[in-house]
């Protein structure tokens, strides 16, 4: 028994992927009335899953090994060469742990949900399995299935528990994501069927296949469209503000903290590893789009009168740094992009949680009706201020380190000439200047002024223990990564070096 639980022969990843959705099915056997049992059951499932991940990775994952570990391969549909194939490396370890952490806190944040809580929490657990499955899949077809597993839960969470325009936002989300998934399926089938003499969807085999340049570009465009919608990359980003504007804030935590990062992960995992020639061709264009996205989304965020939409556009702006880091083709830039994936996962989830707690109290999301909240709810004001500083890349916070590393990555990139690098760096700097403008403006419009001070006794209370616990739990890793970023960089550094050395140095001589 000791050997089974302390060696890689135990199916850790299969259990980690299947456990949330399997345990979620038992929710429907819980009592109908009252959601206390349902809430605690779901929280226990998420906590147990997170502990299981921590135990499995601590004792069975070697940080200095760039190869895929904890590999599991089982035949699923032999006729179609479809395997249940899982494995993780330094690139996927961080997103998997981020998924467990954010989902557990999002479950705790969803405490006020009282309408049909069993279905609500089941959908959250189904998303949990799909997200972990996407990050740990080592089979293209399995990756596509896990990718699609997100679609129905998000649609239902948005359409049933959203705001006034929830049906419009849910429909728009489905149209964008389902349409982009068609391109993903075409790319998956194309690589699986045309990559070798025999159909195969194995990541390890597909990553070492060679294609005609024209065919590789076609595959690359298909995957890029799919991942650009999820990331999102302009101009395929318009679903995001509407979705965030209407979704319950616990759902927003999952979207901003994890769902957007799936697109960035796909760009690295598939576009970079499988299609290096095409990625080298498209990288200058992606760098340009990323720089434009930083400034455009930051400028648009400043003009938003809806709190959640302003935070949503800030997420689009910060994702531009990830795109630039991925496209820089340098160790520094790619490590910075991966660090930004983790950093913004924390920061984005925290801001949406605080926006939701504010809405629970004043029932307002329009800046035109806000003001003077600092005295009435000082604890929310304090946490909102601290995490807004993290969003604007204050030194000592994780966002500062991530964006600084991306800066160094683009400056040292040999893919661009000197003048384009200077221009891109200048545009990125402009975006970083705009970030504190809309962040500080958001704080001023919400918490300062006299609007709510005119009410003798505010009809709401300050942040409670549960909300403080969620806020502080997210704040601690933000500060920890900002002070000691090597904790995250050490997870992916060897894998990043492996990717770039195997797919770019030989193919694209300097």
Automatic annotation (TrEMBL):
It is a multi-pass membrane protein. It is found in: Cellular thylakoid membrane; Plastid, Chloroplast thylakoid membrane. Its main location: membrane. Pfam families: Proton_antipo_M. Keywords: Chloroplast, Membrane, NAD, NADP, Plastid, Plastoquinone, Quinone, Thylakoid, Translocase, Transmembrane, Transmembrane helix. One of its GO terms (biological process) is ATP synthesis coupled electron transport. The keyword Chaperone does not apply. The chain crosses the membrane at residues 12-31, 40-58, 91-111, 118-135, 141-161, 173-196, 208-229, 249-268, 280-299, 311-330, 336-355, 376-394, 400-418, 425-448, 468-489. Residues 137-421 form the NADH:quinone oxidoreductase/Mrp antiporter transmembrane domain. GO terms for cellular component: chloroplast thylakoid membrane. Coiled coil: none annotated. GO terms for molecular function: NADH dehydrogenase (ubiquinone) activity; NADH dehydrogenase activity; oxidoreductase activity, acting on NAD(P)H, quinone or similar compound as acceptor; ubiquinone binding. Belongs to the complex I subunit 4 family. NDH-1 shuttles electrons from NAD(P)H, via FMN and iron-sulfur (Fe-S) centers, to quinones in the respiratory chain. The immediate electron acceptor for the enzyme in this species is believed to be plastoquinone. Couples the redox reaction to proton translocation (for every two electrons transferred, four hydrogen ions are translocated across the cytoplasmic membrane), and thus conserves the redox energy in a proton gradient. This is NAD(P)H-quinone oxidoreductase chain 4. The gene is ndhD.
